[in-house]
User: Which sequence fits this backbone?
């Protein structure tokens, strides 16, 4: 990370750069004079009373005392696009939302309040894709009331790490007492290479519904299945994949879900019975679903993976998926 001009460190950012992506170097306040520096890259979301707030791609704001700055500069709004299908933040966010639809929803300007009886944060959170039609603080208060009426905690889903994402909203949420609870990556890749993999897809059964056997393998299945089934079954073109185990009457060896939406195919619920792991079944399931999506005209793939799921991330790396952006769920205090 280069901050120097003519061999000198320089702070080349000002309060006028609020809203831009910046890179700064600061002294660690507890370090000895002349030792200990930390670099931060993210969106400069505020600069007030001698304190900068920078929101990096993890969505959690960093407060930096102006007096500790030793260097800083504006950097491009997003890293150069890595290989993969082109997509804007807004397009991909809408595609992912259509693949995981709530049981009920309410529009608040350009925000969408979503609920599904508490089944997953994605289906029980505010999706803010524009102006709520009122001050943000008022919109957040409305969201708190809306979820309280349903006996649910209030969440807001945000995205960071790409052009036109929502670092500023993350900072606003923190200022209003909301706290980030979980983060995940949205990854994209070309669909054809996945469909071309050498896998024995003849073992994979495809269906339009999640039957009892599929649900027996699904780790989120529980007693109150109605909201779960509504969320799982809704979407533009939904497919469920099942690989039977050695005992045809027993639980499946592996399952998966895919939603085809125009050029996009979204993969989820890729689960393998622990007794059948390391046999390539996750790849087999995704290959079968990819081939069906290709038949329906899709060309690009996406999926979501939590940032602490190292095993899944390594597998998706090998498949050629790259991170497009990160999303976060902020919960009201």
Assistant:
């Amino acid at each position: 990370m280069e901050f120097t001009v003519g061999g000198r460190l320089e702070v080349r950012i000002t309060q006028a750069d609020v809203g831009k992506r910046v890179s700064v170097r600061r002294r660690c306040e507890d370090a000895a004079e002349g030792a200990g520096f930390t670099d931060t890259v993210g969106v400069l979301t505020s600069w007030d009373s001698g304190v900068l707030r920078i929101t990096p791609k993890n969505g959690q704001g960093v407060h930096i005392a102006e007096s500790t700055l030793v260097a800083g500069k504006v950097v491009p709004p997003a890293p150069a696009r890595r290989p993969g299908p082109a997509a804007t933040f807004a397009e991909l966010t809408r595609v992912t939302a259509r693949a995981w639809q709530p049981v009920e929803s309410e529009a608040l300007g350009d925000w969408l309040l979503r609920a599904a009886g508490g089944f997953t944060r994605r289906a029980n959170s505010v999706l803010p894709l524009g102006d709520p039609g009122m001050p943000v603080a008022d919109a957040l208060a409305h969201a708190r009331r809306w979820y309280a009426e349903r006996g649910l905690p209030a969440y807001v889903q945000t995205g960071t790490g790409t052009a036109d994402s929502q670092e500023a909203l993350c900072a606003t949420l923190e200022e209003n007492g909301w706290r980030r609870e979980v983060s995940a990556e949205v990854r994209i890749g070309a669909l054809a290479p996945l469909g071309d993999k050498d896998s024995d897809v003849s073992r994979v059964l495809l269906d339009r519904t999640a039957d009892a056997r599929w649900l027996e393998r699904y780790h989120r299945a529980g007693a109150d299945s109605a909201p779960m089934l509504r969320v799982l079954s809704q979407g533009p073109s939904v497919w469920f994949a099942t690989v039977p185990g050695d005992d045809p009457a027993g639980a499946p060896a592996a399952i998966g879900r895919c939603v085809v939406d125009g050029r996009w195919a979204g993969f989820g619920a890729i689960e393998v019975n622990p007794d059948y792991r390391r046999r390539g079944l996750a790849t087999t399931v995704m290959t079968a679903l990819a081939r069906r999506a290709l038949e329906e005209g899709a060309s690009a793939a996406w999926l979501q993976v939590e940032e602490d799921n190292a095993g899944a991330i390594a597998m998706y790396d090998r498949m050629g998926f790259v991170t497009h952006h990160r999303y976060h769920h902020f919960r009201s205090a």
Q: What stands out?
A: The chain is about 25% helix and 35% strand. The longest helix spans residues 281-295. Residues 43 and 99 are 29 Å apart (CA to CA).
